[in-house]
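Re: your question from the hallway

Yes, I did run it. Sequences:
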Amino acid sequence: MTPRLRIGLLALAGLALLPGTAAVTAGLPAFGATIAEYGARINAIAPGERHVANMVSAINFDLRGLDTLGEEFMLLAAITGTVVLLRGRRGEGITERAMRRPGRAVIPRSDAVVLACRIAGPLTALFGLYVVVHATVTPGGGFQGGVILATATLLIYLGEGYAGWRDAVRSHWLDAMEGGGALLFTFCGLVPMLFGAAFMQNILPLGTFRDLFSGGLMLVENLGVGMAVAGGFTQLFLEFMEETREADQPDEPGEETA
Amino acid sequence: MTVLPYAVAAWLFGAGLYGIATSRNFIHLVGCLGICQSATYVLLLGLGYRWGGIAPIFYNHPPGTPAVDPVMQALVLTDIVVGATLTALLLVLTIQVHKRGGSLDPETLRPMRGTGTSVTAQGSQDRTGAGSERSAS
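Structure:
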């Protein structure tokens, strides 16, 4: 298909969609005038009913918690698919140690980079944990905090090199974190049913408004999501890094900084 | 200026779609898809905005203060998470395409077939070709 034909087809499709798009655009509410009734009701009711300050977390982990469970498993499925596709050619045999390709130069890191990463890494991890556990109080939550935690492990890679990173981050732990987090979230839905409540009904004490211990079950769910996201994203990075290693070439153990 | 957010969303989506349609490289295509997706962030946040509204977090403001729509923000969060993992999945597929076909240009790639003999022969040829390239560099 020539590029000109592609543009022609795109223009044709755009023209076909134009009347519908115009109709929808004309029917949109004026920008900033009002918000949908559902959101307004949540803003009015949820702080009192659930003792949470962060409405986005209240929606994601309580009012529409079932949707987030679906999202969590979509995340799990996408990461599993990525890992399966990447390991497809390399096979199941994963090593715990970093290997290096013979002949590749080992580039030393400057002391400034190492020092900066050693200072920033733990602080980033602490901040990620803070964002995870304060999901119901301040902006943030399991997804955001989990990504920050994964970033903290990347700082280990930046500062210590690939071999040091592989020493600190174990592939099996990442698997366990990813699956265990999703399992914890699922249990948050199933355990209330043991007590005769509905699926994912918030049966834990709701705690104090604007306090770390508020929102009941939401705190546990956020811990699960934070674990799953941190493990999953680090696992993605690990598998992409392993991809740079050629499976059919002999590897030798050693320092790998590339 | 009240149509500006919607106009930005439409412009982003159009630019991304044009990039997808004319793309000659799969990595470029994944990037264009990301641009299309950022249009949805702008659109959702624009739909949920209210003049003078605070963020839907009642920590420094008492509950009852006019706030923007939290549902849209939750949707954008979902959108971002889905986008990040989908980008990873698409990039892996890109790697697989490059391994099999030796190219990332959709114009030059042949359609994939089953595990026929001709395809495996071509694949192994490409693989050795890529390997010699790598060792040369």
